[in-house]
Amino acid sequence: MKFKFIKYTYLWFFLSGLMMFVGIGAMIYNQSKYGTPLEYGIDFTGGSLMEFKFETETDRNALFDAIESVDPQTVSQITLTDEGTYVVQSKDINEDQLKAIETSVSDKLGKHELLRFNSIGPKIGDSLKKKAFAALGIACVAIVLYISYAFRKVPKRVSPWRFGICAIVALIHDIVTVVGVFAFMGYEVNSLFITALLTVLGFSVHDTIVVFDRIRENLQKQTRNDTFGDIADISLNQTMGRSINTSLATLFPLVALYLWGAPSLRVFIFALIVGITVGTYSSIFIASPLLTLWQERMRDR
Predict the structure, then answer these.
(1) In a domain, 1, yes or no
(2) What is the distance between the alpha carbons of residues 132 and 117, in angstroms, rounded to a whole number?
(3) What CATH number has the domain bearing residue 67?
(4) Angle 191-253-279 (CA atoms, 0-180°, nearest 5)?
(5) pLDDT in tens, 222-239
(6) Which has the closest alpha carbon to 268: 278, 254, 256, 281?
(7) What is the pLDDT of residues 43-96, one digit of tens each?
(8) Is the Cβ–Cβ distance between 129 and 40 less than 8 Å?
(9) What is the DSSP track for 70-117?
(10) Which CATH number covers residue 26?
């Protein structure tokens, strides 16, 4: 029995709209309360990162107090790694401030080793943020052009540009949903997050192209009684099993890495898990139903 995907087009759109509404609402709330829609990392805001290793067991709060005693409101986050080291993210500090912090930490917490110290200025962070979002924009434009070219031999009654634009709408849905989840959860957004988004774009558009390619093949076999919606339903039923199996094969190791992998990569892995799940959903329930709705409305005119 074939499932009628297109029949429930507005249900899929409602569910997607609800997810996006929650995410955008979270960003608006964060903007009004904290002055920024997302929790940007030092990659984008500028700041410093220090990693301490102590000879004796140390409390996170004690480390926080030792650093803050030098310069209040310095620390933004302290993370304990699996190796027993502490990674401290702070506002941008210079060499003199770093020496003062090390002295304070030594006096209050004993001997330690500073394993690394990285500092990114506010201007560099702002430049990285602009370049990251520019990369997302360029990727989306390139995807539209590629899909439109790849589907140039589709039957003339269907414009290849519609395939590209519908794929981009699905990708925008994926990006907004993932960003919204991060805004809702309060997770930090950094350069690794942008890497995850670009990976999700590639995965999602690949899945969408597989469905669209099957639609193109089935259009060649279309009978007089078949509507575009019928062709889309046939194509989705033919490809749904492959899409789900591919996604699950990708998600299983990602979930394992999220549960037992390095804490420093946990947020990055979480972005991939959410993005691939949403990307699989949009390829099946957003891109093809949107293409069908657009095509059938143009036919009725």
Answers:
(1) no
(2) 23
(3) 3.30.70.100
(4) 60
(5) 777 778 888 899 999 999
(6) 254
(7) 777 788 888 998 888 888 888 898 888 887 778 778 887 778 888 888 888 888
(8) yes
(9) TSTT-EEEEEE-TTS-EEEEES---HHHHHHHHHHHHHHH--EEEEEE
(10) 1.20.1640.10
Q: How many domains does the chain have?
A: 2
Nearest to 117 by CA among 103, 142, 97: 97
Based on the domain organization, do 12 and 72 belong to the same domain? no
Q: How far apart are CA 98 and CA 67, in angstroms?
A: 10
111 and 155, same domain (yes or no): no
Q: How far, in Å, CA of 115 to CA of 161, rounded?
A: 53
The least confident of 89-98, 119-128, 249-258 is: 119-128
81 and 190 fall within a common domain: no
138 lies in the same domain as 238: yes
* 3 state DSSP class of 188: strand
Look at phi and psi of residue 118 and say left if phi exceeds 0, alpha if psi is from -120 to 50, else beta: beta
* Contact call for residues 276 and 254 (beta carbons, < 8 A): yes
160-185 and 122-150 helices cross at what angle (nearest 10)? 150
CA pair distance 115, 301, nearest whole angstrom? 68
Q: Are residues 191 and 266 both part of a single domain?
A: yes
Q: Domain residues for 51?
A: 47-120
236 Cβ contact list (under 8 Å, min separation 6): 3, 5, 211, 284, 288
Last residue of a domain, one of 97, 120, 143: 120
Considering the domain architecture, whether residues 131 and 107 belong to the same structural domain is answered as no
- The whole-chain average pLDDT of the chain stands at 85
Read off the tokens for 239: 């490809």
129 with 115, same domain: the answer is no
pLDDT of 256 above 90: yes
Distance CA 63, CA 104 (A): 10
* pTM, 2 dp: 0.81
What tokens appear for 126 in the block? 């702002």
